[in-house]
């Protein structure tokens, strides 16, 4: 998939673009922050995904408010 200069990928079939940096952050299992969650889904909150993240062993960044 071609990368845009804004750091996102062009989405096929009219879907929203994805922030490749946020995807890499999550894929590398780095602790999630509100910024990363928002970049992946602008309707999601860190508090809203905290239990799901914990259930799969994904950490929440220290100092972040879930």
How does this structure look, described?
Helices cover 38% and strands 6% of the residues. The model is unreliable at 1-5 (pLDDT under 50). By secondary structure, it is mainly α. It has one domain (8-55). A hairpin with an 8-residue loop joins strand 1 (8-9) and strand 2.
**Content of β-strand:** 5-15%
Strand order of the largest sheet: 1-2
Tell me the quaternary state.
single chain
SSE string: EEHHH
What summary fits the major beta sheet?
2 strands, antiparallel
Cα-atom radius of gyration: 13 Å
Count up the helices.
Answer: 3
Essential attributes:
6% strand; single chain; mainly alpha; 3 helices; disordered N terminus; 66 residues; 38% helix
Secondary structure blueprint with pairings:
Layout lengths: L7 E2 L8 E2 H8 L6 H7 L5 H10 L11
Antiparallel strand pairs: 1-2
How would you sum up this structure in a few lines?
The chain is mainly alpha-helical and 66 residues long.
């Amino acid at each position: 998939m071609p990368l845009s200069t804004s750091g996102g990928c062009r989405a096929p079939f009219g879907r929203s673009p994805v922030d490749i940096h946020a995807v890499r952050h999550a894929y590398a299992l780095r602790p999630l922050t509100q910024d990363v969650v928002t970049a992946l889904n602008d309707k999601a909150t860190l508090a809203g995904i905290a239990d799901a993240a914990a259930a799969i062993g994904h950490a929440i960044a220290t100092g972040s408010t879930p």
